[in-house]
């Protein structure tokens, strides 16, 4: 017999239209929403709860199976060349952004990262990569301050005035842009955020959760999303938190499990499970994460194999024809599928001449193609790598149509 997980409660608020919104809407439209009631969600405190007491045996069995799959992924990841860990992390970052309909091609992302293109989506995804790197690299215990640091990394370059700060206003999902009237979810009031986040941190830090890290990660993520501590970026920070937690738990240590790619296989079920969690149901979010972990291991393993096959083929091509710099430049293509001479000089600590010679050799072999007429903005791209990265998220979405992996 399982116990009950506490559901969120509601608090009635009265909406007051600000002067700025009143000026924008006009008095007549503003009066229609001013003074109306709305319901805020008040998350329960979970620091002293054990999710095992509220989980049915069938769902627990799924969690155990998925955990075994993740351990197999971890064993494989330990055998990968070091650059693959960064490739998986960047792919996971792009998938996490895509969950929220933020997408950009691999080429656009690569060109934005080296300053050749201005793309709002690509800049947000690049910032998400930095936030995820911070999360996965976190050595100290997870704290409220580390969550704020992740958020600052995520939004500092997006002209977001509250990057790295808890929100001081109401936030909601659904309804209108001007009021939470009729919204499907309204976050807790700002004054509760510090205590709610500390409660979550205490939950994450509980020794009782060490035996079931995947289950604990699912619940911690759902609780964080219910707290909704920021004006924007809650989903991306919440998924970055997953990687920090799973790494500290020891379940994954060298490469991030591409969980967001796994979630992409059925985003509707993921969002529905977050809603069910607010009602006290932890089985739905646990099942979603078990399925996502299975899909993530499948997708991550497939990407790793495809990149290793591509790399092996390239290495056979250049074996007898290139110097050590060309070998080093080859692996840089997986980290930066669009490269320039200045980038290779910076990353490999070589001269302009050596970088140019390596790119010429790779170009002659058909591994890279040159673009850009202006010598100052000449770049070389690796079409095969760009195609693999573009296919990664597409494969994640395609999984939803395959009942064998759903």
Automatic annotation (TrEMBL):
Any one Gene Ontology molecular-function term assigned to this protein's record: ATP binding
Keywords: ATP-binding, Nucleotide-binding
Residue span, Fido domain: 142-291
Superkingdom as given in the UniProt entry: Bacteria
Active site: 228
SUPFAM superfamilies: Fic-like
Binding sites annotated in the UniProt record for ATP: 232-239
Matches recorded under InterPro entries: Fido (IPR003812), Fido-like_dom_sf (IPR036597), Fido_containing (IPR040198)
Entries under PANTHER family matching the protein: FIDO DOMAIN-CONTAINING PROTEIN, FIDO DOMAIN-CONTAINING PROTEIN DDB_G0283145
Name of the molecule in the record: Fic family protein
Organism: Scrofimicrobium canadense
């Amino acid at each position: 017999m399982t116990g009950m997980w506490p559901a969120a409660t509601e608090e009635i608020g009265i909406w007051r239209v600000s002067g700025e919104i009143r000026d924008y809407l006009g008095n007549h439209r503003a009066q229609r929403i001013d003074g109306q009631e709305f319901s805020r969600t008040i998350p329960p405190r979970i620091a002293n709860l054990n999710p095992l007491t509220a989980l049915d045996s069938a769902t627990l069995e799924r969690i155990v199976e998925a955990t075994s799959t993740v351990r197999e992924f971890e064993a494989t990841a330990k055998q990968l060349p070091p650059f693959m860990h960064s490739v998986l992390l960047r792919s996971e970052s792009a998938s996490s952004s895509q969950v929220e309909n933020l997408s950009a091609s691999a080429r656009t992302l690569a060109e934005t990262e080296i300053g050749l293109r201005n793309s709002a989506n690509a800049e947000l995804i690049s910032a998400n990569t930095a936030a995820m790197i911070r999360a996965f690299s976190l050595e100290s215990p997870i704290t409220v301050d580390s969550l704020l640091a992740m958020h600052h990394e995520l939004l500092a370059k997006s002209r977001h005035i509250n990057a790295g700060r808890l929100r001081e206003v109401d936030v909601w999902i659904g309804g209108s842009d001007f009021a939470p009237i009729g919204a499907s979810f309204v976050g807790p009031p700002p004054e509760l955020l510090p205590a709610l986040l500390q409660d979550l941190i205490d939950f994450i830090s509980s020794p009782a959760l060490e035996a079931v890290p995947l289950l604990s990660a699912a619940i911690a993520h759902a609780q964080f999303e219910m707290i909704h501590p920021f004006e924007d970026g809650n989903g991306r920070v919440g998924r970055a938190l997953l990687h920090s937690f799973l790494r500290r738990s020891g379940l994954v240590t060298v490469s991030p499990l591409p969980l967001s790619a796994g979630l992409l296989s059925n985003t509707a079920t993921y969002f529905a499970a977050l809603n069910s969690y607010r009602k006290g149901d932890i089985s739905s979010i646990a099942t979603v994460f078990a399925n996502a972990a299975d899909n993530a291991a499948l997708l991550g393993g497939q990407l790793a194999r495809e990149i290793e096959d591509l790399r092996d083929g390239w290495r056979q091509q250049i074996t007898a024809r290139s110097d050590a710099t060309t070998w080093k430049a080859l692996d840089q293509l997986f980290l930066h599928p669009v490269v320039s001479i200045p980038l290779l000089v910076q990353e490999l600590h070589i001269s302009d001449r050596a970088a140019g010679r390596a790119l010429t050799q790779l170009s002659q072999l058909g591994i890279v193609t040159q673009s850009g007429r202006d010598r100052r903005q000449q770049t070389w791209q690796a079409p095969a790598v760009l195609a693999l990265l573009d296919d990664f998220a597409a494969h994640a979405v395609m999984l939803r149509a395959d009942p064998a992996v759903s």
